[in-house]
Amino acid sequence: MSVPLHYVVKTRLVELIEQLGEGSGLPPERVLAKDFGVSRWTMRQAIRELIADGRLRARQGQGTFVATPKIVQPLALVSYTEALRAQGHVPAREVVKFDEIPADDVLAEQLAIAPGDPVFELERVLFADEQPIGLETTYLSVARFPTLREVLDATGSLYRCLTGQFGVQFGEGEELVETVIASPREAELLKATQQLPMLLLHRQTRDTDGRTIEVVRSLYRGDRVGFRATLRP
Measured between alpha carbons, how far is 91 from 155 in angstroms, rounded to an integer? Predict the structure, then answer.
């Protein structure tokens, strides 16, 4: 089976990336194409795939650089803040939306409330080392957490607030991971292009009594974040 030329070039570029090291600038596309003996189109395709893979990062007006390693998040019921700090990163959040909305039929069933009951919708951009890596939208029952707006530092840890202010004891959760393309709004918030692959996580978290605490939709940049799970028989 023949191997596409751009894949061969991509493999050689990976070797070059490893030699250059993190943060180093890649030679211009035209120079690389000449050195590798391929067309600029072929070189451009290989570079685009390495950007999507998270190995390279393009900076508008500056060039293409060797990217830092991806942040690996555990698929577990842990605070985003604590998980990033444990890896030596500086976490931050920016609130995009914190509203009350009526629950539709699906959300009402997930939260075990009646359709039309008020629900908090908390949407935040997630940052690591001042770079946007994710967009998280959390839904919680207003009846269960009536003072959430008053007690929550929306730029801090929601889990810490739920545990400390409401006595929530996290039990278990279900998470579905899929790949998607960001909407124009999502891409803008994450400072990404719509062509960049995204990882979408749907999570439903329950307490130790089996009651649903939250429903979460998290969108992560595929070039900056990966996920790890511990599997046991």
Answer: 10
CA neighbor of 148 nearest in space, from 132, 160, 130, 166: 166
Looking at the structure, do residues 168 and 196 belong to the same domain, yes or no? yes
**25 found inside a domain:** yes
Q: Is residue 199 domain-shared with residue 179, that is, in the same domain?
A: yes
Q: What is the pLDDT of residues 146-179, one digit of tens each?
A: 999 999 998 888 999 999 999 999 999 999 999 9
Each as own residue / partner, the long-range contacts of residues 47-50 (CB below 8 Å, 24 or more positions apart, any chain) are 47/13, 49/6, 49/10, 50/10, 50/13, 50/14, 50/17
Domain count, the chain: 2
Q: What pTM does this model have?
A: 0.78
Structural domain harbouring 24: 5-66
Q: What is the pLDDT of residues 6-24, one digit of tens each?
A: 788 888 888 888 888 777 8
CB count in 10 Å sphere of residue 85: 12
